[in-house]
Design a protein that fits this description.
- The chain is mainly β.
- It has one domain.
- Helices cover 0% and strands 54% of the residues.
- The chain contains no helices and eleven strands.
- Strand 7 and strand 8 form a beta hairpin.
- The protein is globular and about 45 Å long.
Length: 134
């Protein structure tokens, strides 16, 4: 993908395989899974990485708006603009945070036109893949 899917957020907490991130410019506290626990010394610092999710069902959005529900907790519903799509069935969506989305149904790719707004439910276990911690 030619768009960068990474984002920076404040690491609010890290316990076992769960992190709580606060992206700048909004009130979100997004709970995401991680493959490996992060060092407690990183808490309170900015961290950069990518978020990955699996869309259960994708719909074209009639209005423009980007959000994640709930505002605090594990993402369940996402709305945002499609930035890019790959032939491998993944899309990049700009929402409250950028998300790399794997589509459950191949037919959903028809709704994922770059520049268009979509909304979808996500499967439990949205993951964060850190690239750096400061």
């Amino acid at each position: 993908m030619r768009h960068d899917p990474s984002f920076e957020a404040l690491l609010e907490s890290a316990k076992d395989h769960l992190v709580v991130l606060s992206p700048p410019g909004n009130s979100y506290e997004v709970h995401l899974a991680v493959d490996s626990p992060l060092a407690e010394s990183s808490i309170g610092h900015r961290i950069t990485g990518t978020a990955h999710a699996r869309a259960l069902r994708v719909h074209r959005a009639s209005g423009g708006g980007a959000f994640i529900e709930p505002i605090v907790g594990e993402p369940r519903i996402v709305a945002g603009r499609v930035l890019a799509r790959n032939d491998d069935g993944r899309i990049l969506v700009k929402s409250a945070i950028p998300l790399l989305i794997e589509l459950e149904n191949e037919s959903d790719m028809d709704h994922c036109v770059p520049g268009e707004f979509i909304n979808f439910h996500v499967e439990s276990g949205v993951t964060f893949h850190p690239s750096t911690a400061s």
